[in-house]
Structure formats: C-alpha cells, structure tokens
Amino acid sequence: MSKFHPLTIADVRHETRDTIAVTFTVPAELRDSFRFQQGQHLTLRAHIDNDDVRRSYSICSAVQDNTLRVAIKRTSGGLFSGWANDTLRPGHTLDVMPPMGHFNVPLNPEHRKHYLAFAAGSGITPILSIIKTTLAAEPHSRFTLVYGNRASSSVIFRDELSDLKDSYLERLKITYVMSREQQDIELFNGRITQEKTAQFLQHWINASDIDTAFICGPEDMMLGVSTALQQAGMPKADIKIELFAASIPKHQHQPRAAASDTHRQTEVTVIMDGNAASFSMEQDKESLLDAGLRAGLDMRYSCKGGVCSTCRCKVIEGKVDMDVNYALEDYEIARGYVLSCQSFPTTDRVVIDFDQAE
Predict the structure, then answer these.
(1) Is the model's pLDDT at 266 over the cut of 70?
(2) Segment holding 165, helix H or strand E
(3) Which fold has domain 114-247?
(4) Residue 332 to residues 50, 234, 235, 245, 353: CA-CA distances in angstroms?
(5) CA-to-CA distance for 149 and 151, rounded, in angstroms?
(6) Based on the number of CB atoms within 10 Å of its own CB, is 73 exposed (0-12), middle (13-18) or buried (19 or more)?
(7) N or C: which end of the chain has fewer CB within 10 A?
(8) Which NCBIfam families does the UniProt record give (predicted)?
(9) What is the model's pLDDT at position 255?
C-alpha cells in the first residue's frame, strides 16, 4: 500500500477556470490495487524544482464508473496545484499511491436511507463520488446536497451535477448557495455557516429524517455545519467530515516541559509492506515520520498536517503523544491508531505497524 505506481494520464478536463479533472489509466495488473470506495483519496507525487512534492486529492468518480479521476483546484501559493494545472496533459505519467481514506459508510441495495451533504468549493470532489456511488448502489435511498460557491462560474462539476439531477429526479435534491452572486431566495445567499445551516434545518431539511451527513469544505464551515446538525438532534457519530490540508493553519510542535536535561532516545521499529526496519531518535524533537524519513525509510505520507491520514499506522508497542488530529475517529485512536506525522514517542521503545492500518 505504501508504494507509488506510475500511472499514465488519460484525460485532463478543465472544470472551471482554476480546476482540472485528471483521469488516470490503470493497467490490468494494478486494478486490484486501485479499487476504491466512494469518498477515498489518492496521494500524488511529483518532482518539482528538484523537490519531492506530495499531495492528496479526492477521487471524484463513482465506484461503478470503473474510472479513476481526481480534481485538482489551483490554490493561492499552492506549489503542486499550480504545477498540475499548468503542466499536466494526457500522456504524461504521474506517481500515484493506491486509494486511502474512510470518508464513507457501508452501502446496501436494501437500504432506504436519506443522506445529506454540505460542500463548499472543491469540497464537492469526494461528495460527488459519494452521491453517484450511493444513488447507483442503493435504489431506494435519497440524497440532499447543499453546495456553496462564490458564483455560478466557480461551481465545479456543475454539468455533471445537473445530469445527475436529471437521472435521479425523485431521489436527488441540490441547493446552491452563492456568496458573491445574488439569488432570488435570501437563504441561498452568503456563506454556509452554523446560523445558515440552522435555517436550512428549520425550513428545508428535517434533521430527524437524515441517516448520515457528509461535510467537506473549509474548517470553520464544517465545524459550523456539524454543530448545527448536532443541535438539531443528529448524533455526532452520524456526521462524517473530510478536511483538506490547505484549509488549516500550520501547526508547530511545542516540546513538553523536560524533566531533566537528558536527551532521551527511543528505539523505533517500523513494520511496512511485510518488512521491519529500526532506527533511533531523540524524544520530543521530531515526529516519528520525520525521523523515519531522515533514517532513510520510505514511509508513506502526504500533507504532514494531520489531515489526510496517509501516514496512519498502529502503535503495537510503546506510547506516543499525537499533536493534532483531523483524520482519525475516536474509535480508531482507542484501537491504537495514530498519525505518524503528528506522533512523538514518550517511551524508550516504540513499534508502529503500517500494514495493520489498512
């Protein structure tokens, strides 16, 4: 799972002025490795100005499409996104790691559920995959989408969403919220906030009728929507959130108060792809991931911000402190899973297993 594979780009389509959809050709021998679930993401790697640059992008195709496609939106100062939008063309090859992520729920053709999604901007990417896959897999289920953008011209996948609405007239409802384009109904103007979500739940959406809610967008938007849903009676366990690394501030590790001037060492063993490798590191100085990379291990990672879960692993022995976590559920942490990019050892020996994290 930690290996990158060179995939050829089959198609590059401009969805908006600053967003491209990139479709990959998956050779027959890699099809099993690249089978995905709705809502998962791919980690892409490129060498840009002699630097190894990695970013995670959500898959936007349905499982039933038998197509592997991601959307890459150009962000201000975004090294990878800018390079991708300017450079990628059909026929180019890009290093891609197999799909990862848990932004989904199990589907069943017998289900008769009502799903809700709130998306803003490029947050539509995993949501589109979830909606398309769910409506095809569960013929008795319904989906409601609230999608926020600046204006009509910035709506990613607008044509595809329109076609999807035409295909599922009775089972898919889509509401657009615009922050810089006036619409006739005042509720549909502005940003998606906690207050606006509460108004939706009061006038348009019955929270008690929702089985699962998916939220993807800027952090403040997602926290506001989640809070409004919980205040309306939705259990937190039924609310799924997917955060993008670009939407959070950079975190700087703050060393713990040292009990003495002694620099304590930890012996770390990493189990990955069936192999075990060890290295020594100083406690409270750098993360397990950074220390492993410095020791020459090809440990998997992408954002290094505690968001994407690419570096997810399980602590088999010893203890670690995890600085920030935007990716793991409480039950995963209880079972010993951590994000190696945010984990600092607190014992003399630590064993982490990437293979058990799958």
Answers:
(1) yes
(2) helix 158-167
(3) Rossmann fold (3.40.50)
(4) 36, 21, 18, 20, 14
(5) 6
(6) buried
(7) C
(8) PA_CoA_Oxy5
(9) 72
